[in-house]
Amino acid sequence: MIAKISSTENLGGALGYNFKKVEKGEASILLATELYQDREGRYTMEEVFADMEALIPRKCRTKKTVFHCSLNPHPDEKLSDETLTLIAKDYMEALGYGKQPYIVFKHSDIAREHIHIVSLRVNSKGKKINDRFEKRRSKQITDALERKYNLIPSSKVSEKAETETPKVDMGKGNIKEQVASILCMVLKHYRFCSLGELNAILSTYSVAVEEVKTEFRGRKYDGLVYVPTDDKGNKISTPIHASDIGRGVGYTAVQNRMQKSKQVIKPLIPAVRRKVLEVMRTAPDTEEKLRKRLEEQGMRVVIRKNESGRIYGITFIDDEGGIALNGSRLGKGYAANVFNAYFSNPTHNPFLDETLYGSSSARLEQSPTIQPSQSETEEGDNLVDELIEDMVGESFGTMGNDDWKETAWQRKLRRQSKVKLRRRKH
After folding, report:
1. What does the CA dihedral 233, 236, 241, 242 come to, rounded to 10 degrees?
2. Backbone angles phi, psi at 46, to 5 degrees
3. How far is CA 301 from CA 65, 131, 287, 329, in A?
4. What residues contact residue 305 under an 8 Å CB cut-off, 6+ apart?
């Protein structure tokens, strides 16, 4: 059993997320303690929110007063409501929340049933519930609960099953469950630094991700939707909002994943770049040959084209290492336009140019194009290359909604150019 704990100051958000699923019939309330129950024995969002909010002292030093936790049994585990209720009680008691008001929801919107618990991190006197070494203690508690209730240990999750995750199959139904399963594996195993790289990974499983922006009561919100696709990347189903799948696949979670990935991926770039260079020096004159030779190196490539057949994006994926890198992230000489020019005229192979790509592994790391000491300049070039690739892709109707990003980047680049011109004049 895996526990995921979070703290927030948004009580309405934590409760609303769960009650929304109850309204849709995708969740049910298993247990509530110290909370108001109406005459019919029901709990409503309004009453539970009012009860909990009233228990938070006005003068409270703790900012994040809300405790939100999900308990996730092994996917093969099928537990009764009674057992899940007992597990929730034991867990909250052992963690120190036994006397706190809390409500337990069972989610059944995906194949793996699990429970969510919302409580308060402060008591009625404003004193914070002890959260020292909370995650460590939580792991010890879940391990004990697995033994007490004879549950399948969370450590038994098969890594093989993760790597063999199937594509979305529209004929099987339960599309949301299939997409949720794919996202769970991808976000756990892979590292990526942009939505384009995430899309390259997801394309293997016939799923695409799109960014959406909405406005509600004068406030702007960023979000993600996931869309099943066919083998050509065309949408074949209604987009599924990330909030309907779970918090771990939403905009903030994916952004955090991308930020953390940048530092992890950085030292791995030279090895990937070397493999690509070695393959390109064998002069694969077709895209199919490039794919086959990269597979021999344990890598995959995803090539994106517009309607006229021009390559506007290329991503290299190391499945074993769990990383995806756009060509431009490897260096300016690996951008999509370089590969487009090569496949348009295979007789001219720029990767054989020793002045740009070096003549040996030693020179490879010291070549002008990919010299480590030029990382800052190179990163700027990569961002420009990615911007151009995204703009070309959008103009031909590819998936995504990054127009605002493109416009912002164009303005930034123009401002930088003007600054340079002014400096030269003076």
Report:
1. -40
2. -65, -45
3. 46, 45, 9, 14
4. 311, 312
Q: Which residue has the higher pLDDT, 365 or 57?
A: 57
Phi/psi region, residue 225 (left: phi>0; alpha: psi -120 to 50; beta: rest), is beta
Nearest to 270 by CA among 359, 203, 201, 334: 334
d(CA 23, CA 230): 32
Token representation of residue 393: 């892709």
What single string gives the DSSP state of each residue in 111-173?
SS-EEEEEEESB-TTSPBPP-TTHHHHHHHHHHHHHHHTTPPPGGG--HHHHHTPPPP-GGG-
Which residue has tokens 């989610």? 107
How many Å apart are CA 53 and CA 321, to the nearest integer?
Answer: 46
| 3-class SS shares of the chain: helix, strand, coil, % to 5 | 50, 20, 30
**Sign of the CA dihedral with 223 first, then 226, 232, and 234 last:** negative
171-183 pLDDT per residue, tens: 877 888 889 889 9
Bridging pattern class, strands 240-241 and 102-107: unpaired
Give the residue carrying structure tokens 């309607």: 307
Per-residue pLDDT band for 74 (boundaries 50, 70, 90) equals: confident
Both structure tokens of 203: 């394309």
The amino acid at 86: L
pTM: predicted TM-score of the whole model, two decimal places: 0.55
CA 382 to chain CA mean position, Å? 22
Q: Of 84, 101, 104, 99, nearest to 28 (Cα)? A: 104
**How far apart, in Å, do the first and last CA atoms of the chain sit?**
66
The tokens describing 371, both together, are 């010299």
Please give the helix or strand (H or E) that residue 18 lies within, else none: helix 11-23
Q: What is the pLDDT of residue 416?
A: 62
Identify the DSSP state of 210.
E
Residue length of the chain: 426
Query: Is 62 in contact with 8 (CB distance < 8 Å)?
Result: no
- pLDDT number for residue 369: 43
Of 237, 22, 223, 196, the residue nearest 109 (C-alpha) = 22
Unique residue bearing structure tokens 């991190």: 121
Environment class of 78 (CB within 10 Å of its CB; exposed 0-12, middle 13-18, buried 19+): exposed
229-256 core/surface letters (b: 16 or more CB in 10 A; e: else): beeeeeeebebbebbbbbbbbbbeebee
